Structures are given as structure tokens and as C-alpha cells.
Amino acid sequence: MQPPFPDDPQLLDRLGSDDPQAFEGIYRRYWKRLYDFANVKTRDADTAEEIVQELFVTIWEKRHSLQVSNLQSYLFTSVRNRIIDHYKDKAFAALDSVDPLSEPDYPLFLDELEQAMQQAVGQLPEKTRKIFVLSRFEGNTVRQIASLLGMPERTVEYHITQALRTLKTLLKEFIVLVLMLLTAGKF
């Protein structure tokens, strides 16, 4: 006789053996929590429901080949990844529908972006700023910068990484617009 509430590994084993009750058990155990998680992240009930439903369809379709050691972790990570994919698809769809060069504000945007970039680079610590400028604006390699400044290559890489992280945060409002320019090949 099966225990009334099998644990996740038992449910996964039974699922792999085509047991629809095991699938139902997983569904009942996790659907609401996954939906709530997706709903908080997407702020859209329909999108959240669609993401979770698609995940469960995939689980059923791949039940024979599913290799999962921690079901809860797998499910929440899968939902998170599907949310990310959803927003990537949405962003690229928006990019495809816009031609930045035909927009009358394009030159204004470039001026704004350049000012924001200069201001953001100016906020970097002096050494990080110097290394970033040598790398990204002057086109020097990590090895060249390390030799020029007399420091290890790993230190140069660290400063470039720190600069990129900081700039990403400071310029986040421009990210979608920069992506549009990059896809248009004009940046």
C-alpha cells in the first residue's frame, strides 16, 4: 500500500512509470505555490498561469527522461527561467516592431545616452574608470592595459567587470533603447 502523501522522490519515480496520479500529486502540491511565485514576478495573472501550465505540460511530456534530484528547486527554477524567457521574447518582439532610425527623437536619444554614459563613467572610481576607458573607448586588450599600468591581468579584468556592473545599474533606463540600436546595427 502506498503512503497517503508520497514524498517528491516517490512521486518522480511513479511519474516516470506513467502514473497519472503521481503527476496529479505533483500538480496539486506545487501548482498554487508556483502560480503565486510567477504572479508576483510577472504581475500578470494570465501570464503566470500560462507559464506554470506550460511547465506542467513539459513535465508530463518529458516524464520518462526527467532527471531531477530536488523537485521543488527544479520547479521554481524552471518557472523563474520561463519568466525570464517570456520577458526576453517580449522585449525582442518590441524591438522588431521599432525602427530607431525612423524615429524623430533618435538624435536626441543619442545625445541623452552619450551624456548619461559620460556621467556614469565619471562616477566610477578613478582606477576603474581609467581601466574601463582604456579597454572600451581606446580598444586596448586586457594584456595591454596590464602592461601599461603595471598590474596583473586579473586585476584589470576585475576592474572592467566592476565598471560594467556599475554602468549596467546606472544606465538601466537606456538598456532597451540600446538593444534597439544594437539590433539595428547603428551603435
UniProtKB/TrEMBL annotation:
<feature type="domain" description="RNA polymerase sigma factor 70 region 4 type 2">
    <location>
        <begin position="115"/>
        <end position="167"/>
    </location>
</feature>
<keyword id="KW-0804">Transcription</keyword>
<dbReference type="InterPro" id="IPR007627">
    <property type="entry name" value="RNA_pol_sigma70_r2"/>
</dbReference>
<dbReference type="GO" id="GO:0016987">
    <property type="term" value="F:sigma factor activity"/>
</dbReference>
<dbReference type="InterPro" id="IPR013249">
    <property type="entry name" value="RNA_pol_sigma70_r4_t2"/>
</dbReference>
<comment type="similarity">
    <text>Belongs to the sigma-70 factor family. ECF subfamily.</text>
</comment>
<dbReference type="Pfam" id="PF08281">
    <property type="entry name" value="Sigma70_r4_2"/>
</dbReference>
<dbReference type="GO" id="GO:0006352">
    <property type="term" value="P:DNA-templated transcription initiation"/>
</dbReference>
<dbReference type="InterPro" id="IPR036388">
    <property type="entry name" value="WH-like_DNA-bd_sf"/>
</dbReference>
<dbReference type="InterPro" id="IPR039425">
    <property type="entry name" value="RNA_pol_sigma-70-like"/>
</dbReference>
<protein>
    <submittedName>
        <fullName>RNA polymerase sigma-70 factor, ECF subfamily</fullName>
    </submittedName>
</protein>
<dbReference type="InterPro" id="IPR014284">
    <property type="entry name" value="RNA_pol_sigma-70_dom"/>
</dbReference>
<dbReference type="InterPro" id="IPR013324">
    <property type="entry name" value="RNA_pol_sigma_r3/r4-like"/>
</dbReference>
<dbReference type="InterPro" id="IPR013325">
    <property type="entry name" value="RNA_pol_sigma_r2"/>
</dbReference>
<dbReference type="GO" id="GO:0003677">
    <property type="term" value="F:DNA binding"/>
</dbReference>
<dbReference type="InterPro" id="IPR014327">
    <property type="entry name" value="RNA_pol_sigma70_bacteroid"/>
</dbReference>
<dbReference type="Pfam" id="PF04542">
    <property type="entry name" value="Sigma70_r2"/>
</dbReference>
<feature type="domain" description="RNA polymerase sigma-70 region 2">
    <location>
        <begin position="26"/>
        <end position="91"/>
    </location>
</feature>
<keyword id="KW-0731">Sigma factor</keyword>
<keyword id="KW-0805">Transcription regulation</keyword>
